[in-house]
Amino acid sequence: MKTPKRLVIVNGTMGAGKTAVCQALKQLAPPCAFLDGDWCWDMNPFMVTEETKELVMDNIVSMLNGFLACSAFETVIFCWVLHQQAIIDALLARLELSGVEVRLFTLMPAEETLRIHLEKDIAAGIRDPEVLERSLARLPLYEGLDTEKLPMGEEAPEEMARVIGKRVFG
After folding, report:
1. Distances (CA, A) of 4 to 70, 93, 102, 116
2. In terms of pTM, does the model score above 0.90?
């Protein structure tokens, strides 16, 4: 019997560890494809306008639909901030999901864990200092989403990937 196609979406606030967890999950899920929504926002200068938001969503939908249609992949992994249910719903409404099992996970770091991750990135010059307050302010928004919540302390990304893998692959 053919394995059903799966779409695994991992969201969470900035600095929650989405990319690292999904990179580790990718190792547990071959054959798979991975898309990080942040890659579609890689521009200089960074501009959030109605036009760029539409462009980014169009690109994400196009790539995810391409991965889902490709017979080479059984699993498609996607991560992005996705802090509002309306954004999740709009994305899912545009995807070709016939015969696809969709699983949505939210990484829920403790405030102190999030602060440590972001301060490390700020010190390394990877993130701007204002990201810390924005990310902490968004953290409560994730409680209301229709996703499986994964509390996080100091677990390594590989540990969180195994938790997701167990829930998705059994």
Report:
1. 13, 20, 10, 38
2. yes
